[in-house]
Amino acid sequence: MSDTNSGDASPGHLHRLVLFSDAVFAIAITLLAIEIHPPHHWRGIADLFVQMGPKLTAYAVSFAVVGVCWFSHRRVFSRLARANGGLDVFNLLVLGLIALLPMVTELLWEKHDGEAVLVYVGHVALIGLAMGLVWAYAAFVGKLTEPMPVTEAVFVLLRVALLPGLMCGLTIFSLVKPWGWALMAALVIGLNLVGRRLTPRPAKETAA
Amino acid sequence: MSDTNSGDASPGHLHRLVLFSDAVFAIAITLLAIEIHPPHHWRGIADLFVQMGPKLTAYAVSFAVVGVCWFSHRRVFSRLARANGGLDVFNLLVLGLIALLPMVTELLWEKHDGEAVLVYVGHVALIGLAMGLVWAYAAFVGKLTEPMPVTEAVFVLLRVALLPGLMCGLTIFSLVKPWGWALMAALVIGLNLVGRRLTPRPAKETAA
Amino acid sequence: MSDTNSGDASPGHLHRLVLFSDAVFAIAITLLAIEIHPPHHWRGIADLFVQMGPKLTAYAVSFAVVGVCWFSHRRVFSRLARANGGLDVFNLLVLGLIALLPMVTELLWEKHDGEAVLVYVGHVALIGLAMGLVWAYAAFVGKLTEPMPVTEAVFVLLRVALLPGLMCGLTIFSLVKPWGWALMAALVIGLNLVGRRLTPRPAKETAA
Amino acid sequence: MSDTNSGDASPGHLHRLVLFSDAVFAIAITLLAIEIHPPHHWRGIADLFVQMGPKLTAYAVSFAVVGVCWFSHRRVFSRLARANGGLDVFNLLVLGLIALLPMVTELLWEKHDGEAVLVYVGHVALIGLAMGLVWAYAAFVGKLTEPMPVTEAVFVLLRVALLPGLMCGLTIFSLVKPWGWALMAALVIGLNLVGRRLTPRPAKETAA
Fold this sequence. Notes:
The structure is a homotetramer.
Chain A: H1 11-31, H2 44-78, H3 85-110, H4 114-141, H5 150-176, H6 180-198
Helix pairs in contact in A: 1-2, 1-3, 2-3, 2-4, 2-5, 3-4, 4-5, 5-6
């Protein structure tokens, strides 16, 4: 479909890899809710929300995390012109960590203390690093991208590798200290400004 | 595929967003059935259906709800020419509410009274409002649609924002008072008549 | 993708509908296995297979059933040139029944007698009839197909409406009386012969 | 999409078959994690990892197994020019075994001894053989591939039929005896060298 104007060696491979990854993301994001069950006893709607509050909060955070990871994944793959076996392997690593997220989210319910939060944020940071590995391999080792300046490639690397962990940590921090949201907004706006200066050609995303 | 005649900046982005959303809808709709198990003891087929009746009814209603939401989603996205980060975020909100629907459906089994029904219908209405947010952002803020008259954009907004809640409420009402179905039929036919007058070009849906 | 040579009004709609249906089929077929768990105690591999035999048999039968339904669905949709709202609704009915199949399969484990088998085969026959409804609507009411002789349209109707129930009944019958497999082979070969005489143009399937 | 340059009889059929298979692979790989739950009691992060070690190891092995099977599947289907009913049936056999893998993985948790490992590796080897059947049917019986030398077809057959079982057995062996990893590396590198000599045209993968 979008393969016609890329003129590369294996668009079919890249296309199937993207579809496969999307399916895993979609399943993982939907399974986040599958272990949430309504309480057996509840008196009135307010009581229902009080009882389900922690689970719904954890759900919302994890949903946002998978969303951010999916954005990063799309961002990385929209810059690729072809795929190879190495990309398959590193991408599989990302997907394997994504598929574990529903389980790691359960940790947050069972034991809502510092250590569970640490494991959770650590896991999300690991997903970011794995995504950074995918990009580093694609851009610097496998030469799978369209030609781009090195500064841009390094910026993308830092962005996809660090953003999931940072945003996840900041989100949980902001649930406790509301001024964390200001930090988050600054981070997102700042990254967008830098990103726009480095990549002034939005039309490039056509080969997603 | 359908990108060739749209001439926009990021058809790949839009295409991946649609596929991702479709996958979430498909998973949510299939998971509706996953918590339904046959009873351990049943005597004869009639007894089986009596025992399973409430769960199967709730399943049918929720299946129809996800179906209506999917139609609305398709309707909205068939009018878009491109996607951007803001659309990602609002769309994610819709998907997050859709993925919760199997859990909210369980509420209907556990405690089949007015409050459970209220939470359920409220959740469906919320999905509609979130879909309206997606459309309002796309049409009025992000300018992601193909050119269209403002009246049509407002009609689509009202339709996607209010229809899920209305139809869900009417369906449950009609299970108790059968003449509710006549109201529902009038609603659907009326909307189609207005829709046809406002959008006389069915060929526009090619860019879905 | 395959839209270029069809020249119809809404190929995007049809394409999204097919992808959505495929996803539901794929999820339902994979969820068939999700309630199967290995026994807690087993002595040797032979004992493991003896203990799991009934569940694995039911799994194999249901997997084949979903497979046959998917073939029928593909067969129907490969003959369509466009989609509309009515097709959405009837197709949703098919998907709703498909998504219930994992639950109906559990019936076969719990109570392996004539009544459970009857409910199961009845459910599969119902899926076939719903698929027949999709085709009847598409071919005779909505005029969504490419031009074809009426005899062919009627043959497709009988085939998709009756085949799932027949094949499922015959399969279960053949598990008890092995000469049922000969009947099944005769049915499949006969249908293929008739089908070839009526539809001598395999190249038509390009617009799937 | 990639159908335009293949000029075959039923690219739509092949395309839908690939998408359907991808979805089943994606669901199976994601469901591997669904039965893993965090322990109810754990003291410190180290204790958490000790308690979850066996499950996470089994998860990682199975994830890699599904990954290798997906690579094989992609490899096979990238060489096909069209699909037919026979391919549907053999492919369904592969998918049916893939969908059972989450259940077979549970075996490894419950009873971590030689017999459970034997069943597991045997199941993976069976997946490989089923994939070999798909390829043998496509290349030698159904003539569904693009023209290729017989030596290449036989090499692909051996590769897809034997690799999953071999790699799975070697992986589990290497968890006990670390020098098994060297064997594995030699196997992968050797296969790639032979593969490159036999198939010097990577551009052929465009029709995936």
